[in-house]
Each structure stands twice: as C-alpha cells, then as structure tokens.
Amino acid sequence: MLAETSPDPGAARNPSVLTLVRNRADRLRNLMRGLSRQTLPPRELVIAWMQPERAPDLPDPGCPVRHLHVPGEPMPLAAARNRAAEAASADLLVFLDVDCIPASGLVAAYAQAARTARGLFLGEVLYLPPGASDGDPDPAALDRAGRTHPARPGLPEAGLRPEPDAGQLWGLSFALPAAAWRAAGGMDEAFVGYGGEETDLAARLAASGLPTFWVAGARAYHQHHPVHVPPLQHFAPILANAARFRARHGRWCMTYWLDQFRAAGLIDWDAGGPAIRLIRPPTEPEIAAALRPDALFS
Known about the structure:
Oligomer: single chain
Number of strands: 16
Order of helices and strands: HEHEEHEEHEEHEEEHHEEEHHEEHE
Mean pLDDT: 93
Shape: globular
Radius of gyration: 19 Å
Helix content: 25-40%
Number of helices: 10
Structural class: alpha/beta
Largest sheet: 8 strands, mixed
Strand order of the largest sheet: 3-2-1-4-10-6-11-9
Strand content: 15-25%
C-alpha cells in the first residue's frame, strides 16, 4: 500500500521521546544523560510516572520534560504508554524503556527512518552486564560491553530493512507516527500487568497495513537488572494476557514463556489448542529460585 509506505512529512521535525518509570530513578537519570548527547535533540521527553512521587535530582536531557502521573496496580504499562502518547506533541513518537540508554544517534536515526518511509520502526538494543552502566560510561565502553539478544536478528548496516513479522516489536525501543498510534487506538488497556500488550499493538498495526522496519543506527543500551528465568513473578498476568491475545488474533503470543511454564509442570497447554489449563501456580520458593542476578537475557 503506497499510502502506508510513503514518508511522513511531519517527521522532519524533532520527535517526542516517551518513557515509563517505577522505582528505577537511577536508570532514568542515565536515559536522560543519553538524551542530552543526541545529535538531533528530541522535541521533548514525556515521563509517565507509575508511582506517586517524582524522583529528585533529574539531569537536564537537553529538551523540555513533561511529567505525568499514571496510577494503577499492577503496573499500568498500556495505560502509561497511552497517557504519554496523548501528551506528546510531535508527529513521531519514540518509545524508550527506562532501562535503556540511547546512543547519540538514536533520535536522529528514527527521525531519518520516518522521513524515508511510513512504518513501525525497531531499533537495536545491546544488553549490558552488571555494573557496565555505573558512573555514566562513555558510548565506546557501552559498545564494548553490550551484547545482542540471541533471539534478535542482525540489523542493516545502513537505512531500513523490512521486517515481515511485526511481532518482533519489543517495548524497549521503537518508534511510529503519532497518527498511526492514534488510528490503532494505542495500546489495549485490558492487557493488565506484564506481557502481551506490545505484541497486540504490533498485530493491529500490521493489520492496518503499516509495515515494520529495522532501523540502522537507532542503538540503545539496556541497563542490567536481575531477571527471572522463567518469569514466574508475572505468571498470572502472562496467562491472562496470552489468553486475551489468542481470543482476539486466533494465535498465541509469549509462547516461549508458556513453553517454560508447561515444562515446569504449571500449565497444560499446546500451541495449537484453544486454551490454557492451570495445573497449579508457582510457589514462592520456585519464584525465588528462578531469579538469575547475573543473566543478561530472560
């Protein structure tokens, strides 16, 4: 559809960067320092606080900052992204996870992508080991320390590469026209807690005719935090959100995690089946045992 792949004239202006925060102020400060080094400064940074109070002593990101408060339990991830997008003023929205430090060319690369084509744009994320983001390290050090997620494909050396699977959208770093976000209705706030809301959005964007692209140069560095393998601390919302996704799209999402839950004897599930049968929830000792303090990937 030529109308969907044509460049977005409004994207020539500086994009808005949006992020969500709960209890990770140190990570947010690193993100903001990264924004202050952009070759193309964002029009603004919109921060959706999923906690009652803002963090103190935030650095200058080199652009205006908008602060929003988005209450809710468990973490209102879909609602927070929707509120941030509603508050943003630019024609291009860049979503950046609070754990990510943007490389200096990230905003410019996304803006150039939107000048080249209309689409959902995915950037590269390198995962940092423990301690690598301490003390505001220089980008060269982050490049040396960062590792590519084994499930992610290699990126183009320049420009854009079409991606046929919109499900490659992970919420760490992506961009799209604000008009496309609004036309899709944003994220479905019925996805409560962790998991599935990004894949649902990607599926709806693809169904609307919006193509997906990998973007060269839109690099971010994921700051390390302990992960659970499998993510048993999110067991209940993953099951509920996976079922909601299947009811809408006729297929399962988060199959990698569902496979792990099945292997642990917690659920009876088949990728070709219509439902998940709960055998038992994980115990607190099992959740604690799944924590991997030094693992880079979940």
